[in-house]
Each structure stands twice: as structure tokens, then as C-alpha cells.
Amino acid sequence: xxxxxxxxxxxxxxxxxxxxxxxxxxxxxxxxxxxxxxxxxxxxxxxxxxxxxxxxxxxxxxxxxxxxxxxxxxxxxxxxxxxxxxxxxxxxxxxxxxxxxxxxxxxxxxxxxxxxxxxxxxxxxxxxxxxxxxxxxxxxxxxxxxxxxxxxxxxxxxxxxxxxxxxxxxxxxxxxxxxxxxxxxxxxxxxxxxxxxxxxxxxxxxxxxxxxxxxxx
Length: 217
Known about the structure:
2 domains; 5-stranded parallel sheet; Rossmann fold; Arc Repressor Mutant, subunit A
């Protein structure tokens, strides 16, 4: 899942991004509304965590732009105000969910994951394919009953492949969904991660390389 965090309180923004990355999400961070509009124009995000009171361009206008573009991106709006009227106004603008500050980080994670599921065809909370069971919420992976310990990026790649339900996923798509914008697009990090993931999942191999196209399970 790829997430954009838009928050002008830099310490909070960086802390949220760090926490989401630990949950195997690819996260980009910006600190004002103008930068958010630039990122949204060039990258596809599953979820935008959007502070409402932003400098340069207000969070409401960023949210409206997402709606105008007809993007599948879901917006989780943050605000220091807990007033009900503010929440209603934010939802009417086009936000998909609303979370007042201060918030419990586990609730933020749960809401981001719930919104991420709504950007694609509905799938069960626990993904199962080819003898593999993946639970995104618990960040657990089992193969034939055996628990497999994965690094965050390995987990993210496996989740993208599982969610594709047998369709081929290109290296570029994996790079876009599992890594942030600071990753060199010409790196071999996808190939290396897939190789490590194959080894950890064990025999017989379940990740198939489709020459010239990508990977599938």
C-alpha cells in the first residue's frame, strides 16, 4: 500500500510516516498543501493522510482536487478540532474518514488499512493463495501452517502479489506500491527482494517470474 502523509507539523508527520513504514507501507511525506498537490499529480496513492489546516494550500482544497481528478485514492483527514460540525464539513468536501488530534496511533493504522482496502475490489481481511495465508492487520504470514518471518518490504511485496489474485504484477508496479519516491527506479531492489522472499517462502516456489512482464502467485 502506498500512502502520502501531508502534515505541517514535521515531527508528527515524520513520526506517522515511520510508524506506517514499520507496517510495511510505502510512505511519502510533505509538509504543505502545494507540495501535496504536486505529489498527487504524479504518483498513485492508495491513501492520503491529510491535515486540514495546511500552509500554502488548505487541506480542504487538496481534498477537493483528489475528488475532481476522480482518483481511487482515499482521504483520511486530520484536524486539531474535535467539533462535530468540522467533521461533517470535511466529509462533505470529499474526505473518506476523519480523525481528530490527538489520536492513538493504532487507530490511525487501522483506519489507513481500512481505507486502503476500499481502493480495490473487496477482498477478505486474511488473504489466502497457493497455501500461503497473509494477515495484513496482524502482519503475519503462514505457509501450510508454518509461520514465516518477513522484513517490511518483503511483506509489502507479498501482499501486493497476493492482492493481485494471480494476475501478473510488473516490477514497476511493485516498486510503486512497496517503495517510496526516494527509491531509484533503476535499482534492482525489486528483483533482490523477490529472490529473498522466494527463499523464505520455501519449496516448491510459489512466486512465478513471467519473462518480460513481472511476477505472479
